[in-house]
Amino acid sequence: MGVWLKNGMLFNKDGELMRTHIKIEHGTIAAILYEQPLEANEEDVIDVGGRLIVPGLIDLHVHLREPGGEAKETIETGTLAAAKGGFTTVAAMPNTNPAPDRKEQMEWLQARIRETARVNVLPYAAITIGQKGEELTDFAALKEAGAFAFTDDGVGVQSAGMMFEAMKQAAALDMAIVAHCEDDTLTNGGAVHDGEFARRYGLRGIPSVCEAVHIARDVLLAEAAGCHYHVCHISTKESVRVVRDAKRAGIRVTAEVTPHHLLLCDEDIPGLDANYKMNPPLRSREDRDALIEGLLDGTIDFIATDHAPHTAAEKAKGIEAAPFGIVGLETAFPLLYTHFVKTGVFTLKQLVDWLTIKPAQCFGLKAGRLAVGAPADIAVIDLETEEAIDPETFASKGKNTPFAGWVCQGWPVMTFVGGTLVWEKGRA
């Protein structure tokens, strides 16, 4: 038994796109046939019509808001949005209420994921109790309860001593420390980047140095602790330089970049629209160019969305008072494909790798590849059809995006998790 995905286009081991048939059986990939006729019963075949077949996309930076923020998002709605975007594995940040900062809360979260998630969810545990930066959590107990890694994302760990101890404990457990890098003494209470847009509108700006100085501190701590240290949503040219130098020195540091920091800079903000407010903020054109260069030369390891849903009422408070963050799961691939692959900046293989095998390799995941025996986590993507981004059609509760109306190609049309079709375009 099982089902065949027929007539898909798949990258072979040499990185060439070939017409391919994939057999899914018992939740795994049972066979891959390249350029061969398929003999199977019609009822056991899904003809994907020459569309691209890729490993299910991986996003290691999302906010699902549950518990405590269910008006913004839930595990169910956020993972449905992930499936709609072609993502089959996401890692959920711990800035919830309560945070997963103790074993019992992590066990509750794992049970809730099993009950309601549409895709694979890897839950982060907090580095400090309540993410307050005052007392470390019980790393061993949280790992036993299923923590994926440790982070206080949303706030930077301000004490170097606290971060060093966290890194030593994480290293002893072979776990990663994942950091939102921001020195609170340097943020200036800003809402946007300290640049052209801030000056034009008389707003307080967040300087680039507040991020880069934390990364510089942390890579040295990671070297001393022997820890895997991962930089969230890198945004400045100085930060890229620090990570590049650290990698050259042999320090175990990895980094991610968001689609919005690759696509936009502060000069692109059209006015006082809170849908352009995120943290880190949209930086300068030079910063954006450095991020693209860093991704291409391997300084930045992969792409993650930082999917951050908020209610319409929250974002209506204006750019200074509204919370930071935009949604990204449902638009990441089409935006990046349209504006980087179609224009020749990235190859299609590079884009797919940055959203699949690269994050998997950085964190030792079994996901991110299509091979016989691997989990049948698969996305089917239509590279031809053009559609405009319409927030009202989002599966996410959050509609807060600066990309409304952007016309894109590269839309996912089917998503399988463990061989089960969890989302299909046009199907309720």
From TrEMBL:
Pathway: Pyrimidine metabolism; UMP biosynthesis via de novo pathway; (S)-dihydroorotate from bicarbonate: step 3/3. The keyword Metal-binding applies. Belongs to the metallo-dependent hydrolases superfamily. DHOase family. Class I DHOase subfamily. The lineage of its organism: Bacteria, Bacillati, Bacillota, Bacilli, Bacillales. Binds 2 Zn(2+) ions per subunit. It is an enzyme of class 3 (hydrolase). CDD domains: DHOase_IIa (cd01317). The keyword Signal does not apply. PANTHER family: ALLANTOINASE. Pfam families: DHOase. Zn(2+) 2 binds at residues 153, 180, 233. Substrate binds at residues 63-65, 95, 279, 310, 324-325. It catalyses: (S)-dihydroorotate + H2O = N-carbamoyl-L-aspartate + H(+). It comes from Bacillus caldolyticus. Catalyzes the reversible cyclization of carbamoyl aspartate to dihydroorotate. The active site is at 306. PROSITE patterns: DIHYDROOROTASE_1, DIHYDROOROTASE_2. InterPro entries: DHOase (IPR004722), DHOase/Allantoinase_Hydrolase (IPR050138), DHOase_cat (IPR024403), Dihydroorotase_CS (IPR002195), Metal-dep_hydrolase_composite (IPR011059), Metal_Hydrolase (IPR032466). This is Dihydroorotase. Zn(2+) 1 binds at residues 61, 63, 153, 306. NCBIfam families: PRK09357.1-2 (NF006837), pyrC_multi (TIGR00857). The gene is pyrC. Gene3D superfamilies: Metal-dependent hydrolases, Urease, subunit C, domain 1. Keywords: Hydrolase, Metal-binding, Pyrimidine biosynthesis, Zinc. It comes from the Bacteria. Its cofactor is Zn(2+). Its EC number is 3.5.2.3.
